């Protein structure tokens, strides 16, 4: 089940999964709205895909600029999406897992996608860094709360990847200068997260919970 505020962004991915022989469904979900999050989980149940056992919370936005100039509206958008949205997504998923008996199966997996920005200071990104630091600590706290409930919660902190959110910046001369300053002088490949996230969602991760993995191609060194 692929959920996003802009459903069209995940609809093509669902089609690719189906074309490859899998089952997938794209649904609407605004992570900043509790009602929307609940409705999305209801849609999962109605689609009869079986019980939920794995959740990846990956929504994120940025509001770059000097802290003296970023508007309150922009700040709220960052914290509502990056922190509140992660909280609501994980919480509603955990409710469904517990109701389905995950305590006995111990197969509940929640992966929160944070950022290496949680551990470093980035010029013009005070709100983003603060929100991602919140995600890291939220992950540890949820892991502690559900440690006896059959749900493992872990956080993955990637570095800069050529996503839609950052593409324009890294295409600029200033962005290219920043890339040249990375130790490996390149952006992190998005595929570098595939194996770590797959592991955290698998049975092999039974004894991995409350961990924060920084996987940033050495950008924060």
Sum up the structure in keywords.
221 residues, alpha/beta, Rossmann fold, four-stranded parallel β-sheet, two-stranded parallel sheet
List the helices and strands and how they pair.
Layout: E1 2-4, H1 8-19, E2 26-28, H2 34-46, E3 54-57, H3 72-99, H4 102-105, E4 108-113, H5 126-145, E5 151-158, H6 164-171, H7 173-181, H8 194-200, E6 212-215
Parallel strand pairs: 1-2, 3-4, 4-5, 5-6
Helix pairs in contact: 2-3, 3-5, 6-7
GO molecular function: oxidoreductase activity, acting on the CH-OH group of donors, NAD or NADP as acceptor; quinone binding
InterPro entries: NAD(P)-bd_dom_sf, Sc_DH/Rdtase_CS, SDR_fam
Pfam families: adh_short
Characterization of this structure:
With 221 residues, this protein is of the alpha/beta class. It has one domain (52-215): NAD(P)-binding Rossmann-like Domain (Rossmann fold, 3-Layer(aba) Sandwich). The protein has eight helices and six strands, in the order E-H-E-H-E-H-H-E-H-E-H-H-H-E. It has helices at residues 8-19, 34-46, 72-99, 102-105, 126-145, 164-171, 173-181, 194-200, and strands at 2-4, 26-28, 54-57, 108-113, 151-158, 212-215. The strands form two sheets. A four-stranded parallel β-sheet has the order 3-4-5-6, sandwiched between helices. A two-stranded parallel ribbon has the order 1-2. The relative contact order is 0.12.
Concise overview:
GO terms for molecular function: oxidoreductase activity, acting on the CH-OH group of donors, NAD or NADP as acceptor; quinone binding. This protein has 221 residues and is of the alpha/beta class.
